[in-house]
Structures are given as C-alpha cells and as structure tokens.
Design brief:
The complex is a heterodimer of chains A (233) and B (226). With 233 residues, chain A is mainly α. Chain A has 2 domains: 69 residues; 160 residues, MetI-like (MetI-like fold, Orthogonal Bundle), CATH 1.10.3720.10. Helix content of chain A is 80%, strand content 0%. Chain A contains 10 helices and no strands. In chain A, helix 7 runs antiparallel to helix 8, helix 8 packs antiparallel against helix 10 and helix 9 runs antiparallel to helix 10. The longest helix of chain A has 34 residues. The relative contact order of chain A is 0.15. The longest helix of chain B is centred in the middle third of the chain and has 31 residues. Helices cover 80% and strands 0% of the residues of chain B. The radius of gyration of chain B is 21 Å and the shape is flat. Chain B has one domain: MetI-like (MetI-like fold), CATH 1.10.3720.10. In chain B, helix 1 crosses helix 8 and helix 2 crosses helix 5. Chains A and B meet through helix 3, helix 4 and helix 10 of A and helix 3, helix 4, helix 7 and helix 9 of B.
C-alpha cells in the first residue's frame, strides 16, 4: 500500500469541518478553567485552612495522573452518578444516554482549573506590593485597587499563559474520541474508517493541527506585543 | 466502589509497571541525546539542516502526542517498505519508543536551547580568556551552569513522558492501561471505575516519587549556580 495524496487532501477537507467545534469546546473549557482556577488561587493566596490543604491534594492529583485516566475515571463514574441523582429528583435517564461532550467538559475543566490556578497565583504574586500600597495611599478602596491596579497588571502576565493553555487544550482534546466526543482527531478517525487509509488520515489531522497552531501563534504574538506596549512607559 | 476488588487487581496492574519504566528510561535517554543533537544544530545555525530542525520541532510541538504514536505505528512500515525493508517483525514496544523519542527530542530541545542561551556571554569570554579550549569551556564552565537552569523543566518533561506512556495502549501495547482493558473485559465492565481509580493512584504515586527525585537532584546541582 502506497501513500495516497489524494485521500490525504480529501481527509483534510473533512477534518477541517471539526475545527470550529473544537475551538468552541476548547474556549469553553478555558473559560471555566480560568473561573475555577481563580477561585482556587484565591483560596491558596488567602491560605484558608483545610480548604487550602484539600486543594493542594487536588492539584497534585490532577497533575500527577495522565489525562486519559482522568477521562476514563469520569466516564465510568459521572453518567451513573448523574442518572441516580436525576432519578432522585424524578427524571428518568439511562447512564448510556449521558452526553459524552459533558464528560469531556467536566474532565478538562477540572484539569484546566488546577493548571490555571497555579498560573493565576503566579501572576498575582508577580505584582509589586508597592503598587498595592500606592493605590491605597491615594485613597482607593480595596475593590478599586483590585479592579484598577492589580487585575490589569496580573492580566498582562497571565494572558500569554491563557493563550498557550488554549493551544494545549486543543491538542489535549485529541483524546476526547476515547469517550465518544467529536473533535479534530475523532473526525480524522471517522474519515479513516470510511477510506480505510489510516496513515493518510492521521497525517491529514497532523497537518490541520500544525496549521491551527501556526495561525494561533501569529495571533498570540500580536496580542502579546500590544500588551507589552501598555506596560512599558 | 469495591475496595476488596481494588486490592485484588493492584498486584496484577503493578506487574506491568516494569514495562512502563523500561519505556520511560530508554525514551528519556534516547530523547535527551536526540535533543542535544537538535539543539547543537540549531545553535550552530548549520544552513539547511538547522531550518529542517526548526520545522521538525515546530511540527512535533504543534501536534498531539497521540498523532505521533499513530503516524509512527502506521507510517514506519510504509516508509521502510518504500526502500525495500520489511519491518513487520518489529514489536509494539519499539514503535512506542520511536514515537516518544521523536516527540521528546523536539520538546527537550526547546528546554535545552533557552537554558544554554541563558548562560551570560561573559562566562564564555572568561573561559576563553584563561586559555580553555572550546571543549574544556563547555564541560567545565557552561554545562554545569546550564544544568540547574534546565533541570526543573527537564523534570517536568520526565513526568510528562511517564504520563504520555498511558496512550500506548491505543496501538495495542499491554502496559498498565492495556492490562486495565483486559481486566475490564474479563469482569464484563462491572468494575470499570475501580480499575481506573487504581490506575490513577498508581500513576499519582509514580509522579510524586519522580517529583521527589527531581527535587533532590535540583538541590544537588543548585550549588553550581552560586
């Protein structure tokens, strides 16, 4: 069997159809991750007793276990849990009817929250304490201080990290097919099953990923440059 | 959750750990060597090869690890048949290691290059000014300073490598994840959650262990920075 370029090009077109959906899912995961990551970071910065220890264990667990194992653990617990919960409220749902996209969203959001909490914490700690004192000295309330001084500066540090995280999520979503959700990788596997040309399909998927990453990196660099303009004076 | 079942399958799953460790160790060594070569080529800016290496690292970093594994698994036989060699006898372990080495070579090179560039140029000049040859300069002055800079990232790369081995069961390798599939099939899927929780615990334990080893090494090499 030789390498068939025509099949590869056709597969690229099929795979490209999954790109907007993959982007949407990745973006959603990043948003939820940042939201929960922010809460976790807040708890860790304030060193809330007990909660902060629980979070340490949670972050260590999430970072120490491969993503696919997380996916499988959630896949084998969440649908049953949700169905028995729904039954208690009076709804009838079989575990296998549980939408696979929810398994993906829950797993990846947890993971992303753990990762982003570290990034957000780092960003806040990178702010010079004198900036906060300066804000208070001119009569800002704590809230004004947070909104006008701390967050804009933390954002400049954290945004590049968030953008990189988006790329990583898009790549990590390639595992979502194992629980039945459709992203770029899953689309390539569908095409491969139809044409029974596995190598061509996977290379087509690889080229699509490469293309996306290339474009995103150019966009990110532009955004980062603009951020740097704002911080230097 | 059936705790007794977890205790029962724990030894069976642990038995596959040596295969994972073997893959991690071989890949880490070969991947590091590849990374050193790639980094050297890119730092010396050898024309054509250097651009090819840029392309290679960019491709490897932009595509998911799963794709490397599949492309190597389906692609290597096709590539070798094109030049008239039949490699169907090659085991899945070899395919796995090849795919992981290709990825890690690119990934680690992206750690080594900035670490090397982080050593100030005065260090190079100082070493040359006291009459060291290029080789002596690197062995005695530069590398001892590169090591502590690169080590935290290298440690993370090693933990990522351990976690990446969890994907190899998708090409049919019977490692810890492959063994899990067998156990789940044998128990008709009743104990799915228990099996995966056990695996999560095993991976967690391994990661924590690795982290401690790396932290110990960081302390040891930190003295070069002072």
């Amino acid at each position: 069997m030789n390498f068939d370029f025509q099949v590869m090009f056709e597969t690229i077109l099929i795979v490209l159809q999954a790109v907007p959906r993959t982007f949407l899912i990745a973006f959603l995961i990043l948003l939820v991750g940042i939201l929960f990551g922010g809460i976790i970071a807040f708890i860790k910065i304030k060193q809330v007793p007990i909660l902060s220890q629980i979070i340490n264990v949670f972050v260590s667990y999430v970072r120490g276990v491969p993503l696919i194992v997380h996916l499988f653990v959630v896949m084998s617990s969440l649908p049953e849990g949700a169905s028995s919960l729904l039954k208690a409220v009076g709804f009838e749902m079989q575990p296998h009817e549980f939408p696979s996209i929810l398994i993906v969203l829950v797993t990846y959001s947890f993971l992303e929250a753990a990762i982003q909490s570290e990034n957000i914490r780092g960003a806040f700690q990178s702010i010079d304490p004198q900036q906060i004192e300066a804000g208070l000295s001119i009569g800002f309330t704590r809230r004004q201080n947070l909104r006008r001084i701390i967050i804009p500066q933390a954002m400049a540090v954290a945004l590049p990290m968030f953008l990189n995280a988006l790329l990583k999520i898009i790549k990590a979503l390639s595992l979502a097919f194992t629980v039945g959700a459709v992203d770029i990788m899953a689309q390539a596997r569908f095409a491969a099953a139809l044409s029974s040309r596995y190598l061509e399909s996977y290379i087509a998927a690889a080229l699509v990923y490469w293309f996306i990453c290339g474009i995103l990196l150019i966009v990110f660099n532009k955004i980062e440059k603009r951020l740097q303009l704002g911080s230097t004076r | 959750m059936d705790l007794e079942f977890i205790m029962n399958i724990f030894p069976t799953l642990l038995k596959t750990l040596p295969l994972t460790i073997y893959i991690v160790v071989v890949t880490a060594i070969l991947g590091f060597l590849l990374a050193v070569i790639v980094t050297a080529i890119r730092l010396k800016k050898i024309p054509v090869i250097s651009q090819l290496m840029d392309l290679y690292t960019s491709f490897m970093r932009s595509t998911p690890g799963l794709i490397h594994i599949f492309v190597v698994y389906y692609g290597l036989p096709v590539l070798f048949r094109a030049i008239g060699i039949d490699i169907n006898f090659i085991s899945r372990v070899t395919f796995s290691i090849t795919a992981l080495v290709l990825y890690n070579g690119a990934f680690v090179s992206e750690i080594l290059r900035p670490s090397y560039l982080a050593v100030p140029s005065q260090q190079h000049e100082a070493a040359t000014s006291v009459g060291m040859t290029n080789w002596q300069k690197h062995i005695r002055v530069i590398f001892p300073q590169v090591l502590p800079i690169a080590l935290p990232s290298l440690g993370n790369a090693l933990i990522d490598l351990l976690k990446d081995t969890s994907l190899l069961f998708l090409i049919g390798l019977v490692d810890i994840m492959g063994q899990a599939d067998i156990i789940i099939a044998n128990t008709l899927g009743v104990y799915q959650l228990e099996v995966y929780v056990t695996i999560a615990l095993i991976y967690w334990g391994c990661s924590i262990l690795l982290e401690q080893v790396i932290r110990f090494l960081e302390k040891k090499t930190g003295k070069y920075l002072r």
